[in-house]
Amino acid sequence: MGQPLIYLYEQMKEEQVETIRQSAPDHIIIDAKREVPQIIEDDIEIMLGWDKDLGQRLLDSKTSHLKWVQSVSAGVDSYDLNRFAEKGILLSNASGIHSISIAEHVLGVLLAEFRGIRASIDNQSKKEWSTNNISYQQLSMQKMLIVGTGRIGQQLAVFAQGLGIQTYGVNTSGHVTNGFIECYSHKNMSRIVNEMDIVVNILPLTDETYQMYNERMFLSMKPGTVFVNVGRGPSVNTSDLIHALNTGQLSFAALDVFEEEPLPENSPLWTMKNVLITPHISGLTPKFKTKLLTIFMQNLKQYLTDKTLAKNEIALHQGY
């Protein structure tokens, strides 16, 4: 093996690259978005961001020295976690960076629906002064079930409680978490979901969460439930979702993620009046790369010390 490489697939500012270089003087820093010199790929030890083609070659290589990948997203379902585990590659995510943005997004789409803002936008486009098509409700005192009580879920609970929303949570074991009146386990979710007015999905995609929102789950909800998905698209069976919206089992859905992205032009969701579509933007965050670098540098310092990570390490067998 030659001199080990840190491969920056996520483009950083020059001063940020220099910060990494000073912290890892024994490594060659490759800024892949600017210029890639001829390198021996197997010498890559650390990757910031994930180059799918290069990453697959490294996973397939018997002589690769890849030891750690820092993901730029919170979700890691696009990674071959089994291969990471087989090859002993560490994986960390960007959990925590998007918490405020996604929490604000959820409340934004809910307020747009509950306060008649969506209908007002439609009226404005037609230069129509009318309240005939505007319905309104209060978010205050609504029961919100937040499915996923990690950092994003906890941040949403704090913001939601500020509006007087009653927040309940779902997590793996049902353990109590700050910011929630009560928490339930995944296996008990269908038993209590019929008491909720709003259901918000923030779960990562795993074998257990794949298409968990299906006909059976939607029928477990009380008629007229509001559904928000800012987790992962494949957690939802789209056909069953459309049916639930058409029958009134769901009164409204705000969808930021989908089974297939971009959402196909022929999807019925585009023209449904009780659906709000956003193009996977809930996690867009100001100063994202600065926040990402903070996580990466904490992990880099720890990794160079003892080959472990300080923050956001993924449990590969669990998927989060």
UniProtKB/TrEMBL annotation:
Protein species of origin: Candidatus Enterococcus palustris
Gene Ontology terms for molecular function: NAD binding; oxidoreductase activity, acting on the CH-OH group of donors, NAD or NADP as acceptor
Annotated keywords: NAD, Oxidoreductase
Record's protein name: D-isomer specific 2-hydroxyacid dehydrogenase
Domain D-isomer specific 2-hydroxyacid dehydrogenase catalytic, chain residue ranges per copy: 7-310
Domain D-isomer specific 2-hydroxyacid dehydrogenase NAD-binding: 108-282
Family designation: Belongs to the D-isomer specific 2-hydroxyacid dehydrogenase family.
UniProt KW Heme keyword: no
Presence of keyword Translocase: no
Coiled-coil stretches noted in the UniProt entry, renumbered to this chain: none
InterPro entries referenced in this protein's UniProt entry, alphabetically: D-isomer_2_OHA_DH_cat_dom, D-isomer_DH_NAD-bd, NAD(P)-bd_dom_sf
PANTHER family: 2-HACID_DH_C DOMAIN-CONTAINING PROTEIN, D-ISOMER SPECIFIC 2-HYDROXYACID DEHYDROGENASE NAD-BINDING DOMAIN-CONTAINING PROTEIN
